[in-house]
Write a structure and sequence with these properties.
158 residues; alpha+beta; 4 helices; 13% strand; elongated
């Protein structure tokens, strides 16, 4: 369905949700890459590590026991934030005209943006672009660090 009115706030929110989800997927991919390297003594080829990334809870549990509890805790924190963002639905109020002679009101715009978790009904704050940028940056740095750690692990195993 196409919205009748452009809504930059809604577009910005859902674009940010997608950005966080994409980076989180990369974090899980990198965690699985590290776990595969630790278990097999070699770097994965042809995406063979992706089987380990299929189940988030299992990946974090294995990371906690086999690699580093701090990395697993970071991944869990990223998952919580991704879930908070992904499970937020934007609500807003329509701006309407006064009723015409037939009692019909026209919608002229949208205001009062807010987000809510549809499962619980609790309000979810709309993060600023700066907050999203900080989370994205932290997650990107984490991914890079995990990838480097996999390379270092391999060099110490050989």
């Amino acid at each position: 369905m196409t919205d009748v009115f452009p809504d930059e706030e809604k577009d910005r929110h859902y674009l940010n949700v997608g950005r966080i989800a994409a980076i989180f997927a990369a974090c899980e991919d990198h965690a699985a890459y590290l776990l595969f390297t630790a278990r097999n003594g070699r770097l994965p080829e042809n995406d063979e590590h992706l089987e380990l990334a299929k189940y988030s809870e299992r990946l974090r549990k294995d990371m906690r026991t086999e690699i580093d509890p701090d990395l697993a805790n970071d991944l869990a924190r990223f998952a919580d934030y991704r879930n908070l963002m992904a499970h937020s639905v934007m609500r807003y109020d329509y701006v309407e005209t006064e009723p015409d002679e037939n009692g019909i009101r026209l919608i002229t715009g949208i205001e009062n943006h807010r987000t809510v978790n549809p499962r619980s009904g609790t309000p979810v704050p709309i993060p600023s672009d700066d907050e999203i940028s900080e989370h994205r940056s932290e997650m990107n740095i984490w991914c890079r660090g995990v990838w480097i750690r996999a390379k270092e692990l391999l060099s110490t195993q050989q």
